[in-house]
Amino acid sequence: MVIKVREFVLYTLLPMRCFFVFILLAATACTAWAQTAVKRIKTPESTVQEVKQLDDFFDRFNAARLPNGQKAPDSLKTARIRLAYLEQLVNSEDTKWQKGPEREKLIRFLQLVCDERNSLFLNKFDEQIFCITSCNVDYFGTQSLADLLFRRKVSNDRHQWVLQGASDPFMEQLEQKIEARGIIPNAHETNFLSLSNDLHAGIPLRSYTDSTFRFDALSAFIFAVDSRLIKFNECERVTVFLTGIKGWVMKLEDFTREKGNTGWLISDLMEVKEEPLSQWLFQHR
Known about the structure:
Elements lengths: L1 H41 L1 H4 L6 H8 L17 H9 L12 H14 L15 E11 L2 E14 L2 E9 L1 H9 L16 H8 L16 H10 L3 E13 L5 E8 L7 E9 L6 H6 L2
Antiparallel strand pairs: 1-2, 1-4, 2-3, 4-5, 5-6
């Protein structure tokens, strides 16, 4: 009878022991995989890789994908690991990030973004994404630069760049080409015949405005290009501004280097109290 009881206990407990052993082995394996993944993420070879496209920056910032394009493990979203991961998205060759006020500002920004109680992420379909490009133009035979401001427009989960502004320096160059003129006091007696004669002679109408006259730079640039006063050549430098983190503006530039910390990286961080306007963006391009 005792033997049968022992056999019963043995046959009953053996499967349970096997089950617990299986669970223990599985948990150990998962832990080992997670630790390996974290170590792999923290190695410079896997984190300091080129951010080839702007979309890649969003995926890396949001801890959604690894540099090799694979889906990132959940462990990457932990505050400590993500903070170290995001720091690789800063232009490391700029020594200002290494110490002093800029270093303190960077750490403050990263801690805000990586706060486990309220982690912050970017939305690639945000309409408050801006881009400034410097374009080579010829104005009356003189080579110059014009900065154009674009804003991302989103429709049906698709986005495109729309032209929103032109730089004030371009306006200054345009106005320097115009000689201020006046109309004789008694022109009204001749139905402004002198004005008609001057316009037929090719004198710009805006020459007769006073110093308070202003029109927006974008309208002037569009008119000048469409009327062939300006020859538009090509664009060279591009700067992107991300405003998706409230109170902050990230300035991104495309750094071309052979390997490592290269591609679309943060070149500057700016704290703001309100949504930046076009003039502010041009000042910080």
